[in-house]
Structures are given as structure tokens and as C-alpha cells.
Amino acid sequence: xxxxxxxxxxxxxxxxxxxxxFEKTIVIKYGGAAVxxxxxDPNILEDIMFMNYAGMHPVIVHGGGPFISRMMKKYGMEPxxxxxxxxxxxxxxxxxxKALRVINRKIVKTLRDMGGKAFGLSGRExxxxxxxxxxxxxxxxxxxxxxxxxxxxxxxxxxxxIIPVIFPLGTGRDGxxxxxxxxxxxxxxxxxxxxxxxxxxxxxxxxxxxxxxxxSLYNTLKASKAEALIKRKVIDGGMIPKVRACINxxxxxxxxxxxxxxxIPHALLLEMFTxxxxxxxxxx
Length: 284
Hints:
Elements: H1 2-21, E1 25-30, H2 42-53, E2 57-62, H3 65-74, E3 81-82, E4 85-86, H4 90-113, E5 118-122, E6 129-133, E7 144-149, H5 152-159, E8 163-167, E9 169-171, E10 177-179, H6 182-192, E11 197-202, E12 220-222, H7 223-231, H8 239-251, E13 256-261, H9 267-273, E14 280-283
Parallel strand pairs: 1-2, 1-11, 2-8, 5-8, 11-13, 12-14
Antiparallel strand pairs: 3-4, 6-7, 9-10, 13-14
Helix pairs in contact: 3-4, 6-8, 7-8
């Protein structure tokens, strides 16, 4: 009886959040070690199904870095990274697309096996993601920056209560496929869909005041404060593109952005439906 009462209290605590986010779009960037063809973290996908059944509209953007690297090696290519970005030549872009399609199908199948409706698509399909070659001092090859997002197909799926599962390739002005950072694609998609939330699932706890102290987590950060922390190098390395993606989403009109540790069981539910929450929340 005590356990049943405890469960009922949890449901009551979640009720105002379910009401608040009912029929709202939540864009979720699902990446890092949690995404692999060998096995997907069921906790995350169960959370997404719960959100869907509770009347929300989750939209998934996924990467697949570790699997892409393994597939490239299988085809005799050595993965190359500069400042955390994958160098992408004409041969490797085809391997990247093949790897991302494998993971995409796995996510879609898992959601369907859980009783949901999901549909996978590339950012290249229906000109969903248009991009240009990334311009900087380093030539990364076929690595792009988002220039526009056409949400027509995604909105149609949302209306039919189908979960869109998108992988981050875009079409350049030259018609060629470009590899794009999944954080950036998810951020731009959240803006284009006027999403209520942008959630970035990764393998870190969130933004820390002291990288050596896990208890120094920022629970909430204003976007301006986050930018200042980047300048002061409190936020550095691989956290910079994640935090900048959140700042971009907030500046584009998304109400809140979150960085969550996907290794925590049911991280999404803890953040979305409990008073305490986890991770770092970035607000305007």
C-alpha cells in the first residue's frame, strides 16, 4: 500500500507539468554514447513515449558519432577531428549518411515496438535542412551550417501524432550533402517549430562552476550569463557548442533550453515532470 501511495504522489506532482506542456512541441537532441546501432538506451525512448502519450509533441534529432567512426574504419577510412569537428570529404559523407540511417531506423523501430508511431527522415529530404559550407580558418570539407529550415513535413507528422526522428544532414547550395552538427540542427529546428523546450541529452551533468566538482552544477543560467562563462573559459571545450546551441534556441524564441545527462535513468521525466529537475536550464 505504501508503494502504491508513493506512486500516486509522483503522478500528482507530475500533473501540473503535464497540463503545462500539453500539445507543446519539445525538440530533443539525442546523441553521444546513448545513440548506437548496438543498443539504444530504453530509458530515454520510454520517456519520449510517455511524453507522447501525455499529449506532448516530441521531435528527435540524433547524431551517431561513435558508430560513424567505427563504420568509417570498417571501410578503411581513418576518422579525423579538428577542434571536435569531424573532417568530412566526398567519400566519408556517404559512409556518414549510411551510418546515420542505420541508427535512425533503430530508433524508429524501437519507438514503434513500444507502441508509438514514429517516422525517420534525413535533413536532406524535402529540403528540410538547407545549408552552406562552414566558413572558418580550417577546411572541414563537406561540413555545413544551417541556413534555413522547412518544417512542412515535420509539422504534418506532428499533426498526425507521429514522432519525427531526424538525422543531421543538409543540402548545400551546390546540391551536395553536408554533415552538420546535430546540436545546431536541433537548435534551429526548435526555433523553426516555435518549440516550448529544447532539450540537449549528452554525457555530462550540465554546466559546472568548477569542472572538478560535480556538486557545483548551475541549475539555472540566463543566456547572457552563459555567454559570459564562455568568455571567462568556465565553459570550454566540447561544452561550448552545446551551450551555444541552447543560447541560439533561447534567442530564437524557444522558452527554455536544458542540458541533461542521458546516463541518469529517466532523465527526461525527472527534468520535465518533477519539482526538483536535473541538469542545467538556460533561460532568456
